[in-house]
């Protein structure tokens, strides 16, 4: 898939500069070669500035064609876009699978979930405008209109390169904002089919797409001062660096989904048969490359040895292989430096007294293929416990009193979600108490996850700013504009 064109200011034109090759994370057996699956424009700072200026022009201080449309007109446009996506969903999913090595079922789910998210967003906008027009309070009649903010710059990570681009883009667009989309560098070519749809369906300049090195493209965009909202899913370090480039960072509105290091707490009375499959999936689906993955397990001492044994055995049963193979759970990792990083974390954990408890060989098996590793006797000082490793390692710590769980949670820099596995309601309630003011969501006898997408998705501490969900996102990307009329005057109308 060679993405030859750029979409800027309503025109889809062949790119004149350099291109970056995209290689599959999958190596040909017995060689050092990977399939070249496409290329995309290495856009320059000048191209990026054109993109943000085009979005600003299309917004035109709220007077542009798109922000001036009624919500129902915008919904019509969005419905046309939906039809285009549905027609192309298989091709988009294939591209996700090849590019980031996500299993076929999960790649397809990423696209169908996005389609459902757009449908739910349309429904939420209809409800919003049905219910909110006039409110009479203390002798004042107030007309309330949710108005767009301006221009969104949205940027998403490699692990949900399609879906998470749309989770900020769609609510922003439907509320009347215009956009610059910065595509991730892994998971970029899966967007090739939507360029034409955007060009054909939306007014010129409403969506402008930037590809290439983030340092070369995002910095100049921010420095223009033309970005009104930054919708970003990625690391907090990257987010704070980019935000600082804005000449007035305090005026920039933010919707950030950042790192997490979600904790799974296993209580002494856990039903292992029920819990183990859920914990394994929570830790290792898509190789642990989900911000919602369980990254540290805290297991009560009464059940520790049994849990470690059964969990390690279950992990050892996961099949390694290629993403198109039906039963495969562990697939090659797309990030080139990841295997080396994982080896460093294992060495560090062993240095501090941890030990690998899988029987099957864990760690880097063959270049991009990393077999899951379970580390027992994990400690808070280990890098694998402190850092969001975003890979197939599971450190397991032991606790005897719930206050140790509380202390661990309070000392963490992250606060996205947590999961508790156990049976006794009183013990569960005590464990929930450790998290209520520390994370955005607690899951009981279930792994951490973003969905269902109608639920608020947020976090505390360094994990998030702003709340995403079908309905919350509409508020994030709009401002209520109020015209208030004293009741007497109102009666004259
Ligand atoms: O990687 C971060 C995603 O928001 C995780 O979403 O829980 O639906 O896999 P998920």
**How would the global form be characterised?**
globular
Fraction of residues in β-strands: 15-25%
Q: Using only CA atoms, what is the Rg?
A: 24 Å
Largest sheet: 7 strands, mixed
Sheet with the most strands: spatial strand order: 14-17-18-13-12-20-21
- The chain-level structural class is alpha/beta
What integer is the average pLDDT?
95
Counted by DSSP, the helix tally is 16
Head-to-tail CA distance between termini = 59 Å
Small-molecule components bound = glyceraldehyde-3-phosphate
Helix content: 25-40%
Number of strands: 24
Indicate the low-confidence ranges by residue numbers: none
Secondary-structure map with pairings?
Layout: E1 5-8, E2 11-14, E3 19-27, E4 34-41, H1 45-59, H2 65-68, H3 71-100, H4 104-131, E5 134-137, E6 140-148, E7 151-155, H5 163-174, E8 178-182, H6 192-201, E9 207-210, H7 214-223, E10 229-233, H8 236-244, E11 253-257, E12 262-266, H9 272-284, E13 294-300, H10 304-316, H11 338-351, E14 355-356, E15 363-366, E16 369-371, E17 373-376, H12 383-386, E18 393-399, H13 402-411, E19 414-415, E20 417-421, H14 425-435, E21 441-444, E22 460-461, E23 464-465, H15 470-476, E24 478-486, H16 487-492
Parallel strand pairs: 7-8, 7-10, 8-9, 10-11, 12-13, 12-20, 13-18, 17-18, 20-21
Antiparallel strand pairs: 1-2, 3-4, 5-6, 6-24, 11-23, 14-17, 15-16, 19-22
Helix pairs in contact: 1-7, 3-4, 3-6, 4-5, 5-15, 9-10, 13-14
This protein binds glyceraldehyde-3-phosphate.
What does this protein look like?
There is one protein chain. This protein is of the alpha/beta class. Helices cover 40% and strands 24% of the residues. It has helices at residues 45-59, 65-68, 71-100, 104-131, 163-174, 192-201, 214-223, 236-244, 272-284, 304-316, 338-351, 383-386, 402-411, 425-435, 470-476, 487-492, and strands at residues 5-8, 11-14, 19-27, 34-41, 134-137, 140-148, 151-155, 178-182, 207-210, 229-233, 253-257, 262-266, 294-300, 355-356, 363-366, 369-371, 373-376, 393-399, 414-415, 417-421, 441-444, 460-461, 464-465, 478-486. A seven-stranded mixed sheet has the order 14-17-18-13-12-20-21, sandwiched between helices. Strands 9-8-7-10-11-23 form a six-stranded mixed sheet, with helices on both faces. The protein is globular. The termini are far apart. 47% of the residues are buried. Bound molecules: glyceraldehyde-3-phosphate (G3H). Glyceraldehyde-3-phosphate binds at residues 159-160, 290-292, 449-451.
